[in-house]
Amino acid sequence: MGRGLMSIMPPVVTPNKRVGQLKVIGAALVRIPVGFQSGPFLFSPDTFAAAWHGGLRNADQYAGDTQLRAAISSAMNFWFSQDFTIPACLDSGGTTACPCSTPGFWNQNWNSNIILIPTWVGQVCLLLENSLTASEQSSCALMTGRAYNTFQTGINGVSAITGANTLDIASIGIDLGLSTSNISLVSDAYARVHAELVIKDGIKADGIRADGSFGDFEFL
User: Fold this and answer.
1) Is the dihedral of CA 19, 56, 167, 208 positive or negative?
2) What is the pTM of this model?
3) Angle of the 117-128 helix axis to the 45-53 helix axis, nearest 10
4) Which of 30, 111, 146, 171 is the most buried if burial means most Cβ atoms within 10 Å?
5) pLDDT class for 93, splitting at 50, 70, 90?
6) What does the alpha-carbon distance between residue 102 and residue 67 come to, in Å, rounded to a whole number?
7) Are 83 and 104 in contact (CB under 8 A)?
8) HSE on the CB side for 34, CA within 13 Å?
9) How does pLDDT run across 163-192, given as a tens digit for each residue?
10) Can you state the angle between helices 134-148 and 117-128, rounded to 10 degrees?
11) Half-sphere exposure of 62 (CA within 13 A, CB side)
12) Residue-averaged pLDDT of the chain
């Protein structure tokens, strides 16, 4: 694949409670202050965005912190600058439409490109609100918008978007709609969620079963 997503995701760390930690987040070198954590954390831009936004437990002192905000931008812009530009890499990575030599961050598993990363992007961009630059806003809309658009285009190799995939992709659309004040988009996403909340007892159907269980991946 282009440059494996999983290999560049920030690892889980157990911070030293006595001294601050240095952690590379994307292209940003960030000092994790003492007292910021209570147990293992996945230190990634969404955690820092939550701290900057305010409301993150034990991190009130970092709300609105300019140094933290600059570090988040550095990490985000690193990701955005490495985004793939061949549309087929969204769900056809490793094929002739998106050969393994294609530059950019993409994964042969479409879930990473359509759900995993866009979910993170949508959360970060929503938390940063009006502090986003025009360039950041554009990249946020691109990465989340193309994920949500799979409701219209479909996903290569997937017969239909159902079950948990529907809810995950719809949540990306909700984050995008909220961050851009797009009421129509939010309404459309919620309608897709509500339509999925029905009992599905068909053979191998994805979704909620009458006994309260949830079938996914053809009920595997």
Assistant:
1) positive
2) 0.78
3) 20
4) 30
5) very high
6) 34
7) yes
8) 4
9) 889 999 999 999 999 999 999 999 999 999
10) 140
11) 26
12) 81
Sign of the alpha-carbon torsion through 25, 115, 6, 86:
negative
Residue type, 23: K
What residue type is 69 in one-letter code?
A: R
24 strand-pairing partners: 29
**Rounded to an integer, what is the distance from CA 10 to the centroid of its chain?**
13
Three-state SS sequence of the chain: CCCCHHHHCCCEECCCCCCCEEEEECCEEEEECCCCCCCCEECCHHHHHHHHHCCCCCCHHHCCCHHHHHHHHHHHHHHHHCECCCHHHHCCCCCCCCCCCCCCECCCCHHHHHHHHHHHHHHHHHHHHHHCCHHHHHHHHHHHHHHHCHHHHCECCECCCCHHHHHHHHHHHHHHHHHCCCHHHHHHHHHHHHHHCCECCCCCCCEECCCCCEECCCCC
Residue 99 CB partners (closer than 8 Å, separation 6+): none
Which tokens in the block code for residue 53? 């936004």
